[in-house]
Design brief:
The structure holds 2 protein chains of 2 kinds. By secondary structure, chain A is of the alpha/beta class. Helix content of chain A is 23%, strand content 19%. In chain A, strand 18 and strand 19 form a beta hairpin. Classes of the chains: A alpha/beta, B mainly alpha. At the A-B interface, helix 2, strand 5, helix 10 and strand 18 of A face helix 8, helix 9 and helix 10 of B. Chain B: This is Gluconate 2-dehydrogenase gamma chain.
Chain lengths: 570, 251
């Protein structure tokens, strides 16, 4: 028998970037907010001994415990989906801060092209540029409409950058802090890309170039370039994370509580409204009901989609008919790139997660696609994130993977290898989607989320084209040997690729083809909001967090507006 | 800013050899080494004061937490040494303590797959769907090492640990190429796991029992745990630094 708790104004499911932002904004407006977080509390003090590659980067200390819950996966509808038994391709976070704790901090605004990708592609190349099975659609919001929210997120996070990219959208203000240090390795990339006629600029970073106080009064420290960002927490509080910014800002209002070890298993509904959520205490397995005026799903892409599905809210996407929107347009990220082997040793072990330089000459529609068999592209960057010795064993072609020659070559090249890589856009396809699994369950007895995903011809063409560009850059940088990444065939869930999963709960202008409106308010249930990278109608050519942050501020405004006025916000 | 290594490679190999005798005593490694003269300099180094910037010498007693059978552990030692051998750059897997690292990992959450989804039904999937075996890693390791010994017997009528290096490599390659039958798992997957576990042990922080004396980091030029590179990151030259363990942070 579930215990019913006191009603709150707003409950968020998960406390990472989106849950933290919603909490801070709503609590500042006087709304009583409860954050339900299935993981545990953690803070900067927990990262004082974090420089441990094995524990954090190899054994995934900060990541989701899959023994409790995972997803199932198959490449295509004619296969049987099987559980992702071990983490690999992407790393799901857990605990306060979520993926906002173990991220690198590369903080982008998606391009104006991204938000109106269908209209702009059709206008320029005709409606048949891609075959109809590519379910491309506009986001129901424009870059200009989202710009103030981007600005707000960047000021909260203190992003270090420079407005020198001719291809991105117009900014209402400059970056809050100057760019990070331009190291000798980054200069190699800058010189090479300039020589090739491109326009390099410092990558916008949430590893701050200098100490910063954000508008909420939270302090973020200056990055020390220690080389332990991605998969780690920051022991300096210099990598902007929810637990050092929006979470304390929300708590300071006195209107915010977080309950840890609270695993939400269902969104409760009555008619066309939601009434709260049901959760299980992960320690005692007791069941609770948290009633709320407004429910905001702020967990990761996977779990936001799953909660709507198990709660039977919205119409499930059917790949056969194309009808329904829940689970539709799951996308990932395409990762072209090239490695270069150099003569001299370099300080590759120094770095920061978002220390890099980028060109956008091959992102979005910055280049003409008339004679190309794909759309979009990707940002091309060289980052200096800190190479670590277990994971980094670069081998020139034809070197064995073990034994004496392996040992010599991997040691020799560890400090003599650089790579240039792209965050390639991922265009949605009819056959790539999320649904519920019919066989496997989590420890609470709920079905696992099922992912059906494979790379497409669009992805393979984009990968090949951008890989060629990255190889040319690496050649120009003076590498003695350049190795472009192998062409992609079938998506494989085993090797790590990227934790940039998107879609499934997409936003849009039409209830028939999207799950939420452009305030991230559910089309069918006006007091339910769903926010995160799941809202992306496709994945763009950048890391997602900057755009997730902007959507969260947009959503917070929607929740506040709804709390005052009620009704549909669009 | 650069700190230089304070011992030459030759000195280091010499001292690590001396240190080994004192540490290992008459234990398992001594026995294995005795049976295999090629390994006589590949014993664990460790605890030698003065090489790592004055770190304290801590007496280490080595023992097994997972393996019960010394022959299985001896196969593990030789297999990992073939994957990551001693050479003129420095120690190999045995010298770095990798077999002990793997043993200890197999006894804990890694070996027990305790943070992984192990619910049935188990089915054979596509390669792209990843690990689908019901075997835990420690079960897979035991079976794999026993199969290596069986392969040594069937191919060469000898114990794995008594084979020539090339013969061991032939067996390892057969696993790598998935040419050995295993129960409930496949040989290629086991080989990948063994290879990765060897690299984990070689390069993980020495607090886990491998990477003895941080010698793998020294070979690779990785300084381990350093709080900051803010004063070095703009250097045009490669900066050599003596490594530090994250254990130094524990006060």
């Amino acid at each position: 028998m579930a215990t019913t708790l006191d009603k709150v104004d707003v409950v968020t499911v998960g406390v990472g970037w989106t849950g933290g932002i919603i909490a801070a904004e709503c609590a500042k407006e006087g709304l009583k907010v409860m954050g339900l977080e299935r993981g545990q509390e953690r803070s900067t003090a927990d990262y004082s001994m974090v420089h441990d590659e094995y524990r954090y980067a190899i054994r995934y200390e900060l990541m989701q415990d899959l023994s409790k819950e995972t997803i199932t996966f198959r490449n295509s509808r004619n296969q049987k989906a099987l559980p992702m038994r071990q983490l690999g391709s992407f790393l799901l976070g857990e605990g306060l801060g979520g993926a906002g704790t173990h991220w690198n901090g590369q903080t982008w605004r998606f391009l104006p092209y991204d938000f109106e990708i269908k209209s702009m592609t059709d206008a320029k190349y005709g409606a048949n540029k891609l075959p109809p099975e590519y379910t491309l659609q506009d986001w129901g919001i424009t870059y200009d409409e989202l710009e103030p929210y981007f600005d707000k997120f960047e000021k909260t996070a203190g992003i270090s950058g420079e407005d020198k990219n001719p291809f991105w959208g117009k900014r209402s203000s400059d970056y809050p802090t100057p760019p990070m240090k331009k190291t000798p390795l980054l200069s190699k990339f800058e010189t090479a890309t300039s020589n090739l006629g491109y326009t390099p600029f410092m990558l916008p970073s949430a590893n701050l170039s200098e100490a910063y106080e954000n508008p909420d009064g939270q302090q973020i420290a200056a990055c020390q370039y220690c080389g332990f960002c991605e998969r780690f927490g920051c022991e300096y509080g210099a990598k902007t994370s929810p637990e050092i910014t929006v979470v304390p800002a929300a708590r300071a209002t006195g209107n915010y509580d977080i309950r840890f070890g609270a695993n939400v298993v269902e969104v409760l509904k009555e008619g066309d409204r939601v009434t709260g959520v049901r959760f299980i205490d992960t320690v005692t397995f007791e069941e609770f009901i948290q009633p709320a005026e407004v429910v905001v799903l702020t967990s990761y892409v996977m779990n936001n989609a799953k909660l709507l599905m198990v709660s039977e809210i919205g119409e499930m996407y059917d790949p056969e008919t194309g009808q329904g929107s829940l689970g539709k347009n799951y996308a990932y990220q395409i990762l072209p790139g090239a490695s270069g082997f150099f003569e001299d040793q370099m300080n590759v072990f120094m770095g920061a997660g978002a220390l890099g330089m980028t060109i956008d000459d091959f992102n979005g529609d910055a280049f003409d696609h008339s004679d190309l068999d794909f759309i979009h592209g990707g940002s091309i960057s060289m980052t200096q994130t800190g190479s670590r010795p277990i994971a980094s064993n670069p081998l020139p072609p034809d070197t064995p993977a073990w034994g004496a020659d392996f040992k010599k070559a991997s040691i020799e090249n560890y400090t003599r290898t650089l790579s240039v890589g792209s965050q390639g856009a991922s265009i949605p396809h009819r056959d790539n989607y999320l649904t519920l699994d019919g066989t496997y369950k989590d420890i609470y007895g709920m079905p696992l989320l099922q992912l059906t995903y494979n790379f497409t011809d669009q992805d393979r063409a984009l990968h090949k084209y951008i890989t060629e560009r990255t190889s040319e850059i690496m050649q120009e940088m003076g590498a003695k040997t350049v190795v472009g990444r192998s062409p992609i065939s079938d998506y494989d869930i085993v090797p790590y690729q990227t934790t940039h999963n998107t879609g499934g709960t997409i936003m849009g202008g039409d209830p028939a083809t999207s799950v939420v409106n452009n305030y991230l308010q559910h089309w069918d249930m006006e007091n339910l909001f769903v926010v995160g990278a799941g809202n992306f109608a496709h994945n763009g050519g950048y890391n997602p967090t900057g755009t997730v942050g902007a959507l969260a501020y947009r959503c917070a405004e929607g929740v506040i507006k709804y709390s005052q006025e009620g009704g549909s916000l669009v | 800013m650069a700190e230089k290594k304070n011992v030459s490679r030759r000195d280091f190999l010499k001292t690590s050899g001396i240190a080994a005798g004192a540490l290992v005593g008459g234990g398992i490694i001594g026995g294995v080494i005795g049976a295999n003269t090629r390994q006589d300099t590949a014993a664990p180094s460790g605890g030698e004061a003065g090489q790592n910037g004055g770190a304290e010498t801590i007496e280490t007693v080595r023992g097994l937490q997972f393996f019960k059978n010394q022959q299985e552990f001896a196969v593990l030692q030789q297999a990992t040494e073939r994957i990551f051998p001693e050479d003129d750059l420095g120690p190999g897997a045995i010298g770095l303590g990798v077999p002990f690292f793997i043993d200890h990992q197999l006894a804990g959450s890694y070996g027990e797959n305790s943070r992984e989804y192990m619910q049935p039904p188990f089915e054979v999937g596509e390669t792209t769907q990843g690990y689908q075996s019901r075997l835990k890693r420690n079960e897979l390791f035991r079976q794999g090492l026993q199969k290596m010994q069986q392969e040594a017997q069937s191919r060469f009528e000898a114990n794995f640990v008594d084979l020539e290096g090339e013969q061991m490599d032939e067996i390892l390659t057969a696993f790598q190429d998935n040419e050995v039958d295993m129960q409930g798992a496949n040989a290629r997957f086991f080989f990948r796991l063994l290879r990765q576990a060897t690299l984990n042990g070689a390069y993980a922080d020495p607090i886990y029992g491998g990477n003895q004396n941080m010698d793998a980091w020294r070979m690779k030029g990785f300084p381990g745990h350093r709080p900051s590179y803010i004063n070095e990151i703009e250097s045009e030259d490669f900066v050599e630094m003596d490594p530090h363990s994250v254990g130094d942070m524990l006060t």
